[in-house]
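Researcher: If only I could read backbone structure tokens as easily as an amino acid sequence. Walk me, if you will, through where the backbone shape changes along the chain. I have put the entry right below:
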Amino acid sequence: MTRLAIVLTDGFADWEVAQLTASARSYFGFDVVIATPDGAEVRSMGGMRVASDTAAENLHANAFDGLVLCGGTIWETEKAPDLKPVIDDFVAHGKLVAGICGATLALARAGVLDATDHTSNAADFIASAPGYTGHSRYKDSPQAVRDGKLVTAPGSAPMTFAAEIYRALGHAGDELDQYVLMFGAEHQPKAA
């Protein structure tokens, strides 16, 4: 069974991993583990309270197939958790590492975006991360970008973020394509 660790922080963006968590668990049969800083209860931007399964700092790559960081308000502040050791562990073990919106700042601070194709909310947004040197690999894209086992996305791309995570984990195919088309249908031009 595929096992995903999804990190939520206080002020996480409700929509950014909602499609992923729901479909991973109910449609694809993944074991989804919610982790938060210190294992504390967190509240989303919309006010939803979430209890944690474990502390984000205690995640280890040998127990999971992938690490997903949800965006939110905290990543742009001094209160952002330092998850570099966790991120480094997943990268070193060749596991999926994914970040959306503000969480791409955590990936940039950890140095994992310096030599891989990636995207974020904007080039100047990601460039604000201390130590970031991946400017030449930045892709200005409204959809998620996947480079091997690394997936990044702007906050406005939760569907392609979920789809690229599935593809990175080897779950590509007609079923996934149909799923993406179904949930992305509203973004297609209206028929005349």
Observations:
- The longest strand covers residues 31-36.
- The chain has six helices and nine strands.
- The chain has one domain: 3-187.
